[in-house]
Amino acid sequence: MSQLLTYFFFVLGLVMIIKGSDWFIDAVIWAATVFKIPYIIIGATVVSICTTLPETFVSIAAAVKDQTDYAFGNAIGSIAANTGFIMGILLIFAKPIIEDRRNYIKNGLFLIGLVVMTFIISITVGEITRLIGFGLIALLILFLINNVLSAKKEMRHIDYDIEREEDMAGETPLFEGVALDPKENEIDISRKTITKYVVYFLVGITLVIIGSNLLVDNGIQIAQLLGVPSIVIAVTFTAIGTSLPELVTTITSIRKKVTNLGVGNIIGANILNIVQVIGISSLIGPISLNSDPSIISLQLPFVFALVVMAVMFGAFAKSGFKRWQGVVLLAAYAAFLFLNLT
C-alpha cells in the first residue's frame, strides 16, 4: 500500500506542477499585457522563462534537498525529451519548415556549445560551482536580450491597421504591434479580473512548489524501490513529466497547423534548461557531475548526439524536415530510455 502511495504522490506532484504552471503563466502574461508590454516581447522573455518553470522548480527543490544528481538529471533529461521525443513527434506528423534558418542555426550552435561546455566541466572541474552558476545566469540574461532584439527586428515587418498618424487623433497611443481597435485591445482591469489573476498567480506558484517537492521526494523513493540511481528517475520519468507542457503545445500546434513555431521553441527551451534550470539550481548548492558515472558515459554524450542531429537536420532542411528525421530522433530517444532503465 505504501508503495502505491509513493507512485500516487509522484503523479499527483506532476499534475500539480503542470496545472500550477498553467495558472501562473496565465497570470504573468495578463500582468505583462496590463503594463503595455508588446506581445512579441512577452513571448521572447516572459513566456520563454515560464515554459521551463516545471523543470526549474523541480531542480530547485532537488538542490535544496542536496539531491544534485536529481537536479541535474531533470534538466538534462528534459533536453533529451524535448529533442528526441517531442521534436521527433513534431517532425513525423507535421514536417515543419524553418522560416528563420539563420536564427535556428545560431541558437542551435549555442545549445551545442552549452552541452560541450557542460561535458568539459564534468571532466575537468567535476561540478557546476556557484561561480559557474553565475556565469550561466549571465548567459541567460544575454540570451533573453538577444531574443528581445530579434523580436524588435521582427516587429518592423508587422502590418499595422493604422496607416496615417492623423487617424490616431484623440486616441490613446498603443504599444507597438497592436492595431488601434478599442474593442479588440481593451484590457479588462476590473476588480473581479484582478482578483482572478492574483488568485491564479498565488495558487499556481503554490501548486508548483508543493508539486515539485512531492515529485522529488517520491521520485527518490521510487528509485530506491526499483534499485536504480535517482538520476535515472530524473532523466526519464521526471524529465518526461516536466516536459508535458511542451508536448501539449506541440500537439496543439500540429492540430492548428502552426508547426513552424514548435521547432524553434524546442531549441530555446533546451537552452533555458541549461542556463536557467541548472544555473539557478547551482546557486543553491554546487551540482556534482562525477558522483554518478552515467553522467559522463551516457547522459551527456547521448544528449549531445540528439542536439547535434536536431540542429543538422534543421540546417539542411531547406524544403522542410523529413519524416525519417523524426523517426531517427524518436528511435534515438527510445535507445536513451532503454539504456537508462536496463
Description of the molecule:
The chain has 342 residues and is mainly alpha-helical. It is built from 14 helices and two strands; from the N terminus they run H-H-H-H-H-H-E-H-H-H-H-H-H-E-H-H. Helix 5 runs parallel beside helix 11.
What is the overall number of helices? 14
Strand order of the largest sheet: 1-2
* Percentage of residues in strands: under 5%
Main structural class: mainly alpha
Find the count of extended strands (DSSP E, 2+ residues): 2
Give the quaternary arrangement of the chains.
single chain
The percent range for helix content is over 70%
Give the overall average pLDDT: 81
Order of secondary-structure elements: HHHHHHEHHHHHHEHH
The biggest sheet, with number of strands, parallel, antiparallel or mixed sense and barrel status, is: 2 strands, antiparallel
Unreliable sequence segments: 158-166, 172-184
Q: How would you describe the shape?
A: globular
Terminal Cα span: 26 Å
